[in-house]
Amino acid sequence: MRRVGLILLALLGLVLAAGLAPLVVGDFSGGDLSGWEPEEFSGRTAYSLVTDNGRQVLMAVSSGTASGLVKKVELELNDRPMLSWSWKIQGTLAKGNGLTKEGDDFAARVYLVFPSFFFWNTRAITYVWANRLPVGRAWPNAFTGKAVMMLAVDSGEAKAGQWVSHRRDVLADYRRLFGEDPPTLGAVALMTDSDNSKGRAKAWYGDIALSPR
């Protein structure tokens, strides 16, 4: 009977998970920027909704600037651990080098922020289109150290000008990068920046969603 009970509980869990709809954080194709707030670090990157190949997307243009868009999201990753998005870049930054403060610029980034009551315990994962570092490489942010872990999911010029889609298990990534279970997700952000390397970057972002496995 105990085994039957466990099987029924497992099946119930699957049913409940199947009933969870994806949470669309960035509905750019629907022309919806509600909830996205600018966060300026060094000048303002220009973000605007544009049409690309018949669909509406978010375009970002940075000319020696660094600002992002942030949306507050309160979510337990156990419910919706899968992050999906698509992006396209015009090109990487010639002087970009994610391992140094002087080169900490990327044509495209997507952040997941996990705040803490004590701000020094705040953590973040940043998925980036790396300039030269290989796909799969993870490293501490040059400015914040291990509080913010960078993860290259694309790299170089080979796919520049093409739309690339990603689906990441954020729960698994967090456990691997920080060695523990994550707290509640507090925000999703994106940024195109070129302030440190004094370059120019242009990128496009498709819809962003969090969903069950």
Q: What is the general shape? A: globular
Q: Which class of secondary structure composition applies to the elements?
A: mainly beta
CATH superfamily: Galactose-binding domain-like
Q: What's the rounded overall pLDDT mean?
A: 92
Count the strands? 14
- Assembly context of the chains: single chain
Biggest sheet layout: 7 strands, antiparallel
CATH topology, what is it called? Jelly Rolls
Walkthrough of the structure:
This protein has about 210 residues and is mostly beta strands. It has a single domain, classed as Jelly Rolls (Sandwich). The chain is built from two helices and 14 strands, in the order αβββββββββββαβββ. Strands 1, 3, 4, 6, 11, 13 and 14 form a seven-stranded antiparallel sheet that branches. A hairpin with a 2-residue loop joins β3 and β4. It starts with a helix and ends with a strand. About 5% of the residues have low confidence.
TL;DR of this structure?
With 213 residues, the chain is mainly beta. Helices cover 12% and strands 46% of the residues. Strands 1, 3, 4, 6, 11, 13 and 14 form a 7-stranded antiparallel sheet that branches. The chain has a 7-stranded mixed sheet with strand order 2-5-12-7-8-10-9, with helices on one face.
